[in-house]
Amino acid sequence: MSVEFLWRIPVHGDGRRAHNLHTRGEWNQLKPNQAPQRVAPQHDDQHFAYFDYIKQVAQAADIVGFHGVLIPAFPQTEEPWVWASALARETRRLRFLIAIQPWFIHPAYASQMAASLQRVSNGRVEWNVISGGGGEQQRSYGDFIAHDQRYARTNEFLDFVKGYTHHSPFNYDGEFYRVENGGLRYPMNQYEVPRIWLAGASDASLHVAGRHAQIHLTWGEPVAQQKQVIDQTKAFFEKHYPDSKVKFGMRIDVLARPTEEQAYQELRLMHETIAKENLGFEKSDTESVGAKRQQALAQSSRFEDLFVSENFWAGMSKVRGGPNGIIVGSYEQVAQRLQEYIDIGVEHFILASNPHLEEAYRIGEEVLPLLGYNFK
After folding, report:
1. Residues of the chain whose pLDDT is less than 50?
2. pLDDT in tens, 83-117
């Protein structure tokens, strides 16, 4: 089995404390007159900016042998296409998994942008194609169409991109997109369409993944539940797309220290920085099945209650936003837990830990080698 590990790029601040107290760069929500010492400068500092810190994170991931980095996309954060293009010139081998929603951009222009970035990076571009979780966040992007329609749009988007990239002149007449005599020509059509990562647990999402994905991505859950998700997804693909060669990926945080006690102490310190008003785990109006499964993991605000399986803590949403799961323990324990996911069929991991710079080195130097794979 070929196993890949990616690291995450923090697009809205970084630091050792909860995400609303990040001190690296200006991406924080500190109270008035509260001025902690910053480790990275603000965007308007004379000589350096937050991007200079992010460049260090990407280069650290490249140095220790991560296969790539995820550049997420959320409302009110840095834009992943722009940062990928800048980081491509600052790294050598690192691949860039760019989060993209079909609502953001027309597929003809997405094809052209991807082709240019492939040329700049020498073919290191991948796409995390997100159909959107619905609810308030989706509406804040200006996208109001229903759940299944969003996946139908994603299906058309990817059909369009594949045709437009390599089949000029290209014609398409769908429900959401239309083009006449379009398509990329030499030299823009010399690279492959970016490798596609797709998430989703609904039938609508799995039909799109079965047609288009190389990697089906989920947020991390305890091993037994993760296995259930993989088994159900495999059964769906075997029934509807028997020729599909989709692999499985997982997005999860990790916190590793020389001893389990040290790791738990570090996690507790992060948990204690969360503002009291944020300790409850709210029920958002998301339509995402995966997001609802994450919410179900975190039914308590007590530190101890959030350990839901061995070395698995389900409270990270309030520490850094996003999914709830984190694997926490000694270097050996974290490696053992990751191996358990590999054993049930996970071949692609997107890992993260705050602060991302030091932890990229720590995980790359202390944990991944214990798994026995050649990451470089």
Report:
1. 281, 283
2. 999 999 999 999 999 999 998 899 999 999 999 99
> And the tokens for 68?
């790539």
Q: What is the largest CA-CA distance in the chain?
A: 63
- The domain segmentation of the chain, as residue ranges, is 4-371
4-371 CATH, one of 3.20.20.30, 3.30.479.30, 3.40.1620.10, 1.10.150.20: 3.20.20.30
| Per-residue pLDDT, 281 | 47
Residue 41: cis peptide before it, omega within 30 degrees of 0: no
Q: What is the pLDDT of residue 136?
A: 82
Residues 65-76: b if buried by 16+ CB within 10 A, e if exposed: bbbbbbbbbeee
Decide: 30 and 285 in contact? Cβ < 8 Å: no
pLDDT of residue 194: 97
How many Cα atoms occupy the beta-carbon half-sphere of 172 within 13 Å?
23
Contacting residues for 72 by C-beta, under 8 A, at least 6 apart? 8, 9, 11, 80, 99, 128, 322
Instruction: Note whether 268 and 17 are within 8 A (CB).
Output: no
Does the pTM surpass 0.90? The reply is yes
pLDDT at 154: 97
What residues form DSSP beta bridges with 197?
A: 128, 215
Rounded CA gap, 119 and 103, in Å? 25
Nearest-CA neighbor of 158 among 127, 185, 190? Answer: 127
Going from the C-alpha of 8 to that of each of 46, 58, 105, 216, 287, the distances in angstroms are: 27, 9, 23, 17, 24
For residue 46, give both structure tokens: 């004379």
Which tens digit of pLDDT belongs to each residue from 302-328?
889 899 999 999 988 878 877 889 999
CA-CA distance, 247 to 222, in Å (whole number)? Answer: 19
